[in-house]
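Private note to self, pasted from the team thread so I don't lose it. Backbone tokens:
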């Protein structure tokens, strides 16, 4: 077989394969991926930690910005129990990470508040170290976990 003949055969095979499949577009929110369309639509009315809390500023009672939410820690009982705040730093350098109980924080007028805190006081707290955070255990086959 010549190179020209091989090229023609490959092109014909490719055209046959591509032409035989129907293109189906997937639209986010309309395809039930793990739930029904109605369930996925209800998620649009839910609350996203990423969009509502992470990277949001945290203020004290004097409306001074004392840090921002860097992460939310989920405890083994499936509850958000700690907020990791980043304090200080400039352009990502010199940040100090502090874990604060979520129950100590308030939401007022759409802003997060940590009453009685100052930037200096948070910087004096021992830094939260991610390398000491235990990795969540994976469920074993045949067991299911439920959230409450």
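Design output:
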């Amino acid at each position: 077989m010549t190179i020209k003949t091989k090229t023609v055969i490959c092109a014909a095979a490719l055209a046959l394969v591509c032409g035989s499949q129907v293109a189906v577009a997937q639209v986010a929110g309309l395809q039930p991926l793990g739930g029904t369309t109605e369930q996925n639509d209800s998620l649009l009315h839910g609350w996203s930690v990423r969009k509502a809390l992470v990277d949001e500023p945290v203020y004290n009672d004097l409306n001074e910005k004392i840090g921002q939410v860097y992460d939310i820690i989920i405890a083994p009982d499936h509850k958000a129990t700690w907020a990791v705040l980043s304090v200080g730093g400039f352009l990502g350098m010199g940040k100090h990470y502090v874990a604060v109980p979520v129950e100590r924080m308030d939401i007022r007028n759409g802003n997060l508040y940590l009453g009685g805190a100052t930037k200096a006081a948070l910087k004096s707290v021992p830094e939260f170290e991610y390398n000491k955070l235990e990795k969540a255990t994976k469920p074993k086959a045949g067991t299911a976990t439920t959230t409450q």
